[in-house]
Queue: 2 jobs
Job 1
Amino acid sequence: MDKLVVTGGGRLTGEVVISGAKNAALPILCACLLSAEPLKLTNVPELNDIGTMLKLLAQMGVKVEREGENVTLDASGLNNPLAPYELVKTMRASILVLGPLVARCGEARVSLPGGCAIGARPVDQHIKGLQSMGAEVGVEHGYVVAKVGRLKGARLFTDMVTVTGTENLMMAACLADGETVIENAAREPEVVDLAQCLISMGAQISGAGTDLIRIRGVEKLHGASHRIMPDRIETGTFLCAAAITGGDIRLLGTSTGYLDAVVDKLLDAGCEITGEKTAKHECIHIIAPPRLKAVSIRTAPYPAFPTDMQAQFMAINAVADGTAIIRETIFENRFMHAVEMQRLGADIKIDGNTAVMKGVEKLQGATVMATDLRASASLVVAGLVAEGETHVERIYHLDRGYANIEAKLNALGANIRREKA
Ligand code: EPZ
């Protein structure tokens, strides 16, 4: 298993290009299942999770052509509505094939994703929604097994805001008979990007980005082309890397529009952040002070502060001036990076879903272990300012969601090398 060796050092300066959004690309790849005509995608990030999803689609009979960030998917030969455990266990987002398969094929067998480091992550809302649309859905030998003639439009209400639950049900509803209304829908920008792709395929959707989405089912969807939106969590992660090092960087191909809650907190911490438009790019310019002020955060569904940025803010608060309170309200076990940061010298006290942090002057490099995707990123961010070397182990977690993070950070002046552990 690889590890990253991060040598703490100076401020980050220069420009970085932000890749396409993992959490928009994953549902949009699955949208190809809804049509017998090709879906052409650009700005698809080159990540391990994307590779896993393409493998999953290919074993269902989807023709996959990939050239760098351009992917063409042709599901005209879809003949195997099965998502096997061997692939699903490596990537929970595989559950996103369930809705499209039931809608297109009238049946699906999708392995239950199982829990992951940050929580149990059940998919009961996905199942409940499909049942409300007339599908017979059960769990047999660890697989979700669904069967239906044709889904029927229904009024759906999810018990909690669920991003992939909203996405699965929105995709399923595109081919249902009649109108579906999803109440308490997730408002994340990735849901909107998926809706825009589906609409370009001929779906009739309104309200994406609000908590009430209406979908009028159609007989079939046609092919389309779509460019994946920029990754707002990669954007936030690089903003934090600049902020913690007192840096001055430009992030190209992204905008502050998807990250108001995160930008507000970085402004409170003392950073200057401006959105800029050049001939080629939308971009963000951040200039950070020599030392940040501590900022408290509370995670919640979009547009509030994203849970996927909580770990990165634990890193910047570790060396900020003052005390910060971090509340995690989405996942029940998303503080595992805290104990790793304590190994670097961070002053963090955990009490249930609340962390109380007191910023220290300096962190010391140490060997730490990545436990999940965003936790890994936060340990790299902390390592940028820790004294000496920080060895971040098990970085396969990192490679799932960040394309060449060490190359991008080194181009900004960081000192990171990848080693076989
Ligand atoms: C999506 O996960 C993202 N993944 C996650 O990003 C992100 O952290 C999360 O949304 C919250 O924003 C993708 O989009 C691929 P949820 P998802 O359903 O959809 C509970 C990353 O780092 N719940 O919105 O799985 C659930 O347990 C990843 O890129 C149920 O109880 O999250 C959680 O407590 C990590 N039953 C809460 O709802 C259900 O049927 C929100 O989960 C569904 C969800």
Job 2
Amino acid sequence: MRKNIVAGNWKMNKTFDEAEELISVIASEMERNKPKCEVILCPPSLYLEMATDYADESTILIGAQNVSNHENGAYTGEISAGMLSAIDVDYCIVGHSERRKYFGETDTLIAEKVSRLLDQDIRPIYCCGELLEERESETHFDVVRQQLKEGLFKLTADEFSNVVIAYEPVWAIGTGVTASSTQAQEMHEFIRNLVADAYNNEVAEETTILYGGSCNAKNAKELFENKDVDGGLIGGASLKADDFLKIAHSF
Ligand code: 13P
């Protein structure tokens, strides 16, 4: 179902105590003043169980940052979708550009992760987005089309209805250079049209598409006002309760 979402991707940041403090401040502030969107926190995996315990008492939802493409077995260091489900994780980011770049993740591997998550009723947040050189050579639409075709569009419409898409242009991640409102809307509309082509208009209208990449308390409102931008996947600005809550209150 299409909804407005603000999700915080904490990446590999925060000590356990800092993470607990951040969650508890966000939870108590949200109790006082509830944002009009769904709020998801994606802490490092070691803190997920603590986070889901907090989430039990609040309206916050919890997402993991990664999952194994295997169900179980001899995969040292990996965490399965079943393990995430057992501690009540609601969402999981997959295909983040940092995982594509540093861990060699391909669309095929990411598609397997998506399937493992859906098997466990965990909603994937599927990241796509082009590199700077791809935008400069004007191949950004082709890149995103390919990522979605290989990574997502093999799902049935029923399966796909549980997926959230996050458009994160790589040149905007952690750089302070945000996509302009026009650039974001243009790509989000393109993505929604791709979903309509792969499935149908109704499925496309029901798809939640988030923007990520230097989204902050100052620019969130303008970005979220676009008709095809349903919220944000926030990195750096999700590490401070004040900033993150301001973004969540941009709706
Ligand atoms: P920044 O908001 O720090 O640019 O990171 C975005 C991101 O990668 C979220 O997944």
